[in-house]
Amino acid sequence: MTDIEPFVRAIYHRGITTLTLDSPDNRNALSVRLVRELTDALTRCGKDGDVRAVVLTHTGNTFCAGADLRHPPHPRELVKLLRQILTLRKPVVARVTGHVRAGGLGLLGACDIAVASAEATFAFTEVRIGVAPAVISLPLLPRTDPRALARYYLTGEEFGPSEAARIGLLTAAGSDVDEVLEPVLDGLRRASPQGLKETKQLLTAKVLETFYEDAGRMSRLSARLFESDEADEGMTAFRERRDPQWVL
């Protein structure tokens, strides 16, 4: 027995397994442990013949704050997680009702469908701590508007759900996320397992090409940047809630 509470909780209902990120102390940041638990949970969903689709959601006001700066996974592990979402033989649907930052946006990019409430906010904050959105670009660059992505990558600006839907980061947004989600889940329950599997493979083929071509290069870039002096200053400033030295 163990008294350790899981960081990822799973609930099954009528063919849908909901995986809930539940690491409130670090705003569901991508720690070594959370990535491992999510990877394991997705593996179980892939093997379960009763699971038609997966919903990925969260507790608290943050879907995912990006990489855990204290206990970050190796970039290869993040690549593995994003590839697993894309290659899972069942659709994965993101349900967002809070903030999404940095690496958390990679999760949205890898999901087949992503819906959000009006309270959701989004920002690629990597540039502000001295790194770049390297690994998460693997699913994002093929699926989102390149001009908009250039702006938000380079500035780290926050934007809302309407803009996120416009640029292709979200499928849909609304004041009540579950109203938006309901017809999606109904459609998935009406679809055949074979139809879903084969159709998902059609949709993800081009995205997965970028993994085969660029995953190693992006992993090395991410590792190099996180080990740099500039990133050390950026992460220290973030923890100390001050501007880094380069801010003008």
From TrEMBL:
MF (Gene Ontology): catalytic activity
CDD domains assigned to the protein according to its UniProt record, in alphabetical order: crotonase-like (cd06558)
Leader sequence segment: none
Record InterPro entries: ClpP/crotonase-like_dom_sf, Enoyl-CoA_hydra/iso, Enoyl-CoA_hydra_C, Enoyl-CoA_Hydratase/Isomerase
A Pfam family it matches: ECH_1
Lineage top rank: taxon: Bacteria
Family recorded in the similarity comment: Belongs to the enoyl-CoA hydratase/isomerase family.
UniProt name for this protein: Enoyl-CoA hydratase
